[in-house]
Amino acid sequence: MFQLRRFLKKYKLQLTIGPLCKLIEAIFELFVPLITADIIDNGVANHDVGYVLSRGGWMILLGALGLCFALVCQKSASIASQGFGTQVRNAMFHHINTLSHSELDRFGTPSLITRITNDINQLQLAVAMLIRLVIRAPFLVVGALVMAMTIDLKMSLIFLAASPLIALVLALVMHQSVPFYKTIQQKLDKVSLISRENLSGNRVVRAFSKQESDEARFDQKNDELAAAAVTVGRISALLNPLTYVIAQAAIVAIVWFGAQFVFGGYLLPGQIIALVNYMTQILLAMIVVSNLAVIFTKAFASAARVNEIFDTRPSVVEKNSKPISVDRNAPAVEFRNVSFGYADNGYALKDISFTVPKGASVGIIGGTGSGKSTLVNLIPRFYDTSKGEVFVNGNNVRDYPFAQLRGKIGVVPQTAVLFAGTIRENMRWGKKNATDKEMIKALQISQSYEFVSQLPEQLDSLAAAGGKNFSGGQRQRLTIARALVSNPEILILDDSASALDLATDAALRKALSQQTRNMTVIMVSQRVGTIRYADKIFVLDKGKLVGTGTHNELFDHCDVYREICLSQLKEEEVRNR
Predict the structure, then answer these.
(1) What is the mean pLDDT of residues 310-318?
(2) φ and ψ at 499, to 5 degrees?
(3) Is 295 in the same domain as 361?
(4) Where are the alpha helices (DSSP H) in 354-417?
(5) Which residues in 330-358 are b (16+ Cβ under 10 Å) and which e?
């Protein structure tokens, strides 16, 4: 929590005014039992209606003023807590976007979503309670004790005995329940993970008729979450009965001994009523303190999770923000003795070296898990190499500012993702001011214009979140068009034509070769037909580069490539014609 106090700097006024107003309200509240005692002992006892009405008016005035101060405090708390939450959420979202793929892989999407929503909501609540109740509740406890002493020191001994007992009950209950709140947050992460997997992969779940097993998996984690919540609920349920037993016993003692003092002439009936009221105030304040303990326990657990994100530094960082000069005669891409490994998984790529000439078309092929996607992800520097260097236009990718490097490269990932909005808005992700002519050209090259032109709104047709209102092949073609709109120097197609039929795939390759002559095209695929006509083909096997050359050269001299070809084509179909 203390690490996040920087987000409260703008709200120093609210942090001062709010607690101060609540303190004044508490002072007014402490005077009410004294006025009540005065009304009983002087007004009611003497049958003086005017006196009762006069003191009643003072009570109404104190109540009205207390309400005004409470409203000011409430507004201050709302402004500060909501502003704090908004700032933390914005800062966290910004920070998440600075993290590299390695850190995002480590945390996982469900956990990040829970942290930026549920955890920050807990922090907002803690800030609101900090302003509204942190000063008021302890002040009421101390104030009620002091006011009881001003009435009678002997009777105040009952307060001094009851208050520590109530505090002890609170401490014991909190000690048992606090660890469960941290566990609940972790179990909530698991429920979020399963929920997200089920919703995003709903079609796969249905295709395999796995609804029941997925529901069982969700039920198990949800039951674990419920069990933890029930356990802490049972422990917390002891709080009110135990504290009320102690408080009611103290009230009985006040009435019992107070009656004797009244009969003895040491106290007045109104003073006994005032003492009972002060005991009730202490009880209610203690309950508030216990609730605050729960809220702040959750908040500290949430703050730790939020700070974990803020404390995580991206492994891929910019060396400078100024554009660097490039050698236009240098190769488009060059790998020099590159090795790369994911955390705790060994090397996914081992000692890779190759050169891609400017304007060439390159195919990358290999079996599943051979490192194809990993290799192309090193070019736009989504990850940094473990060993070796990657060059673009003669410069090490580590020397480029992100904007300059990624401005040169158009990436079409394996998973075709469209964002909620119109097709036009999606096309302008790579170039904000792209004209309709540029977008239509990109759609034509990607073989998308035929179906887009048949839509009622054409470019202004809506795309659902994730592009779910389009088929898999349509989504892939639209994402290729989105990359082409910016006319990148290097276009990376990471198995992005896997959902296309052979005719459309062939038409796409033909359009790319004819209309992107100055563009370096790197195609990753498991289909020989997609990359067989590339100027150069790189063959990967278990993270190693085992073959480089044209289709015919590799078929004759590379066993891995030959095996892939023969698994997909008949031998008489393999030779380029």
Answers:
(1) 80
(2) -95, 5
(3) no
(4) 372-377, 402-408
(5) bbbbbbbebebbeeeeebbbbebebbbeb
**Count of Cβ atoms closer than 10 Å to residue 124 Cβ:** 22
Return d(Cα 218, Cα 332) in angstroms, integer: 48
Tokens 């003023």 belong to: 65
Sign of the four-CA dihedral 472, 478, 481, 482: negative
The pTM (predicted TM-score) of the whole model is 0.70
Same domain, 84 and 224: yes
Residue 333: strand pairing partners: 356, 392
Here the CATH number for the domain that contains residue 216 is 1.20.1560.10
Using an 8 Å Cβ cutoff, are 65 and 28 in contact? yes
- In the three-class reduction of DSSP (H, G, I as helix; E, B as strand; rest coil), residue 238 is classed as coil
Note whether 172 and 281 are same-domain residues: yes
Q: Which alpha helices (DSSP H) does 238-349 contain, by range?
A: 239-264, 269-311
Distance of alpha carbon 314 from alpha carbon 301, whole angstroms:
23
Whether 409 and 293 share a structural domain: no
pLDDT at 397 over 80: yes
Q: How many CB atoms lie within 10 A of CB 12?
A: 10
The amino acid present at 16, given as its one-letter code, is T
Amino acid at the residue 383: Y
Domain of 421 in residue numbering reads as 333-574
Q: In Å, what is the CA distance from 180 to each residue of 230, 242, 296, 486, 504? A: 10, 21, 13, 52, 56
The candidate with the shortest Cα–Cα distance to 315, out of 173, 102, 141, 525, is 102
Report pLDDT for 192.
73
Q: Report the domain count for the chain.
A: 2
CA distance 190 to 466: 23
